[in-house]
Amino acid sequence: MRTLCASTLIGELFVIGFAGLVAMKDPDLSMGTVWTVSGIAMFLCVLLSGVVTRPGGVALGWALQVALIASGFVVPTMFFLGVVFGALWWASVHYGRKIDEAKARFAAQAEAASAPDAA
């Protein structure tokens, strides 16, 4: 799960950076505000990539997805991209857990097959 979720978050890091470049064109926003918000979001992407398997990591990832969708109020394209990355986040968590379960099953089967019979 960690690899899939981290890959999604790193992809989001780039999208947030590019959205910051687009948001700079808005005359109502100062460059400092845009890059403070974008920088914090980008930092959270990197941070969450490392802690996604810890308790609360997935929930924080969901909060970031909601924030990404909400950023569509500043950069309208982010509504679409936020939904896309929300779907990718769901798939990363869902299928990542299935992969982790399958790996654990295969490891248990391999261990059972290599263990000497007690009979």
What would your notes on this structure say?
The protein is mainly alpha-helical and 119 residues long. Helix content is 80%, strand content 0%. It has 4 helices and no strands. It has helices at residues 2-23, 31-51, 57-70, 77-114. The longest helix has 38 residues, at 77-114. The radius of gyration is 19 Å and the shape is elongated.
In brief:
With 119 residues, the chain is an all-alpha fold. It is built from 4 helices and no strands.
- Helix fraction by DSSP (H/I, runs of at least 4): over 70%
Count every beta strand, where a strand is a DSSP E run of 2 or more residues: 0
Q: What's the multimeric state?
A: single chain
Count of discrete alpha- or pi-helical segments spanning 4 or more residues: 4
Name its key features.
mainly alpha, elongated, 119 residues
Question: Topology, please?
Answer:
Layout: H1 2-23, H2 31-51, H3 57-70, H4 77-114
